[in-house]
Design brief:
The chain is of the alpha+beta class. The longest helix is centred in the C-terminal third of the chain and has 12 residues, at 59-70. The chain has a single domain (5-94), classed as GIY-YIG endonuclease (3-Layer(aba) Sandwich), CATH 3.40.1440.10. The chain has four helices and three strands. Strands 2-1-3 form a three-stranded antiparallel beta sheet, with helices on both faces.
Length: 96
């Protein structure tokens, strides 16, 4: 994995609760979500499945994309996920 910045989407399950974030260390961040280390929203809703990730070279670009995506309709987010991951596989298992 290269040294970029990642916009990622975690889900509780297929078409379940979604969480959108940005990180520079995707394997670590996925592990933190899976362990419930952060508490709060992702722990409460069991959002532990990495279903989408996109790499950016600049953190500013990743943050702009995150803000834009957080304004999207839920249906658009689901369509984006299903374009590259139609079965909602946990992409995080290959990172850990």
């Amino acid at each position: 994995m290269s040294m970029g910045y990642y916009l990622y989407i975690m889900a509780s399950g297929p078409k379940g609760t979604l969480y959108i974030g940005v990180t520079s260390n995707l394997p670590l961040r996925v592990a933190q979500h899976k362990s419930g280390e952060f508490g709060g929203f992702t722990k409460k809703y069991q959002v532990k499945r990495l279903v989408f990730a996109e790499e950016f070279q600049r953190v500013e670009d990743a943050l702009v994309a995150e803000k834009r995506m957080k304004r999207w309709q839920r249906r658009w987010k689901i369509e984006l996920i299903e374009k590259s991951n139609p079965n909602w596989f946990d992409l995080g298992s290959s990172l850990l």
